[in-house]
């Protein structure tokens, strides 16, 4: 089938047929759903600007440094007419997350980070889809997986893959929210898919469950209070008033998703790369804190966790150990690193020990 641009852009039947093919190719590559949207994100510009103006982005300067390119795909990649959005579930078989959160001696890692780095997994498959499209005729494409100023939730919402929940994540009636999103920008005039209606209703479960109160209003998250931001994006000391609220969450947080009624329909991933590695679905805090830098780098190679580095990994674990009062081996583990080479780690270790021995501080 020739899909070159010599075909008239007004030939709706032709482009509709191609869109059906693209979705079939995407399913064959392991994506759960493919949707197509136009590039008009003007309705999202004011909200993004207000969010940044309020300082809710914290240290995530990349949220504004690209200017309008985030909300204008055709300025990021000139010539872009459509965005192909792809959804892929990441839930793997593993320990019950609620049980891990309830065990102060265990380390909770966000479910998306238990397996291989999703950037690599999705990018490879999206590139494969882009190649299939290109083999059918001349086309310009560009693949993105959380790697550029792309409003992936807004685009996926426009493409009919779901609606934005009150926790600001995309929700699907068929799959909940435990999935990754990726995009292909293209100059093909494909027919956009219609958006779906929202189904949160009066539910506020996600807002009520946030351990740090980061969801300050429906659809509005103050990243500076979000556990995911504090344990992944923040490179400085975690604010002391928030440390006790973090509990045993050492990398990310899923609380708002775990309580969402729609995640009753979340699907286990068929992608082996997302199977939990290194026992991280229920590892002990003391064990993980005993790792040295070389062990961390060897074990976390190919994991999204690798990018935060050993220092922030140790900082996060120290906070969780400070919250693990009465757990065996915790004080000994912390005392073993009171003279850690990193000032950041030393400060958090001292704080953690102070939680176990208040008078010693």
UniProtKB/TrEMBL annotation:
It is an enzyme of class 1 (oxidoreductase). Pathway: tRNA modification; tRNA-queuosine biosynthesis. It catalyses: epoxyqueuosine(34) in tRNA + AH2 = queuosine(34) in tRNA + A + H2O. [4Fe-4S] cluster 2 binds at residues 210, 226, 253, 256. InterPro entries: 4Fe4S_Fe-S-bd (IPR017896), 4Fe4S_Fe_S_CS (IPR017900), ARM-like (IPR011989), QueG (IPR004453), QueG_DUF1730 (IPR013542). Its main location: cytoplasm. Its cofactor is [4Fe-4S] cluster; cob(II)alamin. Its EC number is 1.17.99.6. One of its GO terms (biological process) is tRNA queuosine(34) biosynthetic process. One of its GO terms (cellular component) is cytoplasm. It is found in: Cytoplasm. The active site is at 146 (proton donor). [4Fe-4S] cluster 1 binds at residues 200, 203, 206, 260. Keywords: 4Fe-4S, Cobalamin, Cobalt, Cytoplasm, Iron, Iron-sulfur, Metal-binding, Oxidoreductase, Queuosine biosynthesis, tRNA processing. Cob(II)alamin binds at residues 70, 146, 170, 181, 228, 253-254. Residues 192-220 form the 4Fe-4S ferredoxin-type domain. Binds 2 [4Fe-4S] clusters per monomer. Pfam families: Fer4_16 (PF13484), QueG_DUF1730 (PF08331). One of its GO terms (molecular function) is epoxyqueuosine reductase activity. Monomer. Belongs to the QueG family. Catalyzes the conversion of epoxyqueuosine (oQ) to queuosine (Q), which is a hypermodified base found in the wobble positions of tRNA(Asp), tRNA(Asn), tRNA(His) and tRNA(Tyr). This is Epoxyqueuosine reductase. It comes from Zoogloea dura. The gene is queG.
């Amino acid at each position: 089938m020739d899909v070159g641009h010599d075909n008239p852009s007004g030939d709706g039947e032709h482009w509709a047929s191609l869109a059906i093919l693209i979705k079939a190719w995407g399913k064959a590559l392991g994506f759960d759903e493919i949707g197509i949207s136009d590039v008009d994100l003007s309705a999202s510009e004011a909200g993004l600007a207000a969010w940044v103006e309020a300082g809710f982005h914290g240290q995530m300067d990349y949220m504004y440094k690209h200017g309008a390119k985030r909300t204008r795909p055709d300025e990021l990649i000139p010539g872009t007419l459509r965005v192909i959005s792809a959804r892929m579930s990441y839930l793997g078989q593993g320990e019950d997350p609620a049980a891990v959160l309830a065990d102060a001696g265990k380390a909770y890692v966000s479910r998306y980070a238990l397996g291989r780095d999703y950037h690599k997994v999705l990018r490879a498959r999206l590139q494969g889809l882009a190649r299939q499209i290109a083999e059918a005729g001349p086309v310009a494409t560009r693949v993105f997986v959380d790697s550029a100023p792309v409003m992936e939730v807004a685009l996926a919402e426009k493409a009919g893959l779901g609606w934005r929940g009150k926790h600001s994540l995309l929700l699907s009636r068929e799959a909940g929210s435990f999935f990754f999103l990726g995009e292909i920008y293209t100059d093909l005039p494909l027919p956009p898919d219609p958006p779906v209606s929202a189904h949160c209703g009066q539910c506020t479960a996600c807002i009520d469950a946030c351990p740090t109160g980061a969801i300050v209003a429906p659809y509005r998250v103050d990243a500076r209070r979000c556990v995911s931001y504090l344990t992944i994006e923040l490179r400085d000391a975690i604010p002391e008033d928030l440390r006790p609220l973090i509990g045993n969450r050492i990398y990310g947080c899923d609380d708002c998703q775990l309580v969402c009624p729609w995640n009753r329909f979340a699907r286990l991933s068929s992608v082996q790369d997302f199977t939990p590695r290194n026992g991280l679905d229920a590892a002990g805090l003391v064990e993980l804190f005993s790792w040295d830098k070389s062990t961390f780098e060897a074990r976390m190679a190919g994991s999204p966790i690798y990018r935060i580095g050993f220092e922030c990994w140790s900082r996060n674990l120290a906070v969780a150990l400070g919250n693990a009062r009465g757990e065996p081996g915790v004080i000994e583990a912390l005392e073993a690193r009171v003279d850690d080479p990193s000032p950041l780690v030393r400060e958090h270790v001292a704080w953690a020990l102070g939680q176990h021995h208040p008078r010693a501080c």
